[in-house]
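Students often ask what a 'structure token' actually looks like in practice. Rather than answer in the abstract, let us consider Nucleobase:cation symporter-2 family protein, a protein of 435 residues. Its sequence is given first.
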Amino acid sequence: MKQHPLKLTSLGIQHVLAMYAGAVIVPLIIGGAIGLTVEQLTYLVSIDIFMCGIATLLQVMSNRFFGIGLPVVLGCTFTAVAPIISIGNQHGISAIYGAIIVSGLFVIIVAKSFGKLVKFFPPVVTGCVVTIIGITLIPVAMNNVAGGQGSPDFGSLSNIGLAFGTLLIIILINRFFNGFIRSISILLGIVMGTLAAYFMGKVDFTAVGEASWFHMIQPFYFGTPTFELSSIITMILVALVGLVEATGVYFALGDICEKELKEKDLAKGYRAEGMAIILGGLFNSFPYTTFSQNVGLIQLTGVKEKRVIIVMSFMLMGLGLLPKIGALTTVIPAAVLGGAMIAMFGMVLANGIKMLSKVDFSSQENLLIIACSVGLGMGVTAVPGLFAQMPDSIRILTENGIVAGSLTAIIMNIVFNELKKEKPAPMMVKEKSIS
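Now compare that with the structural description of the same chain:
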């Protein structure tokens, strides 16, 4: 059904609003955690919004090589937040982008055969990985609740009040509203929290005044990428988890749009994600994956047209070229972000638990996989110097809790589940009856 241009625009705006908070909060959190200046943070937010538009177009505009051709919306994956902060603090910002570029290339290489690799990522593995990531994100949220690490008013009652006030607004919107209003609860909570902070004198618009109206994107804004092995392994794991999540979204949209997905369609979708990840690395943005909140919006409105998503993509690209819009998001106080982060990062953790709910808990092997992977992942995160005396070749795999926990889950699943499947069943010998 052909939509009127005005309706098409309004539907596009609706999709922008549904994903905007999720899109901008990732660079805001990462930029704040790795110590970027306000000017750098403004660029990071702007380029991220722009690249969300490009990444989405790669999926929607299907051709022989890439693009699944469904109304898919791509945005920064929350799964990457904790790993990127860890890489940035350990090896610097250049290592972040080197790892992102290589992980994107890896995704393109394995796109055709990923269907065969999926068996190594059952719910017990992906659930463990996402749970570990969710747990490691919570300290980031709580630091922001207190006002941000190193802030002079760290832990002040005004910061705590703002954070939990923002969280309360998000909870109330989810309790008393449905549909579209509910889908933008995070955005509304941040806006209302920032308004409250403005009246408390905690919002400074200097960065907005100093930002230019228009800029051009540029590759390697933060310098030439560097390539560090443990960082690359981390981002490849994040990308693989993203592909598993994306597969679910593809099938959900295929069902909504009444399109039967074949193996070649999935491969094209994976390639588009890989290309989006590489572009994220080249233009100093982040890895991209499918946004499930926009799938919910398609279900809610019943509008399945790809043209709506294409309009939305160009809107995002336009917003990304306006630094003043990007600067506007940087005025959000850390405490307000912290309140929203509790809900968002808690949802990452809850999603991990939801994935684990599909696991057969009557199996002692599965319980052991979860216990060891989550325990080791949390242990390395809590005590980062645990393996400091190990040789460099081993420390690469153990110095990051997410990598250590994820690899533990993958290896233990192969040992306990995959090898057991391949083992031939023993032949039963019939006993002779003694008469």
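One point worth highlighting: The radius of gyration is 23 Å. Ask yourself how you might have guessed this from the sequence alone, and why that guess would often be unreliable.
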